[in-house]
């Protein structure tokens, strides 16, 4: 079999494998809520508190979730919204309703915790809502398969051209 055909075939097989793997993974949905902090210096405090194990444990107890705090925190992103007094909590879950419930509960618990333990006030500004037509954020098997195919074909082209160049230099 020709080297070119082998390279193209290998690229196609790799792209199909990546696409198939993506199709077998459960879809992940994302939900976001925003919390407003009364003072700018409290934003960092709230971000730190929200990502703590104790807040995660309290969140898990409220809706009766069956997961470990580490699992909850692994799927949670907490970030400041620009240079405002808002923080955005984003949670990924295999169920769109689960993602929404967890992120809203996390926002409520962290707001209560910061308000109870400091002179700051934190309020849930924007609750996460389930969209009418939820779309998973990952995986994206078609995109991943196409990227693999393009990368494989590009690598194949480089190898074929390089091999031809080496042959010309030897002769």
How would you spell out the order of helices and strands? HEHHHEEHEH
Name of the CATH first level of the largest domain:
Alpha Beta
Indicate how many domains the architecture comprises. 2
Specify the helix fraction band. 55-70%
CATH topology of the largest domain: Alpha-Beta Plaits
CATH architecture of the largest domain: 2-Layer Sandwich
Tally the helices.
6
Q: Could you give a short account of the major beta sheet?
A: 4 strands, antiparallel
Average pLDDT metric? 86
Task: Write up this protein.
The chain is of the alpha+beta class and 171 residues long. It is built from six helices and four strands. The chain has a four-stranded antiparallel β-sheet. Helix 1 runs antiparallel to helix 6 (141-170), helix 2 (42-50) packs across helix 5 (96-117) and helix 3 crosses helix 5 (96-117). It starts with a helix and ends with a helix. The mean pLDDT is 86.
Sum this structure up briefly:
This protein has 171 residues and is an alpha+beta fold. The chain has helices spanning 3-24, 42-50, 53-61, 69-74, 96-117, 141-170, and strands spanning 29-37, 76-80, 86-93, 122-126.
Describe this protein with a few key phrases.
single chain, 171 residues, alpha+beta, Alpha-Beta Plaits, four-stranded antiparallel sheet, 57% helix, 16% strand, elongated
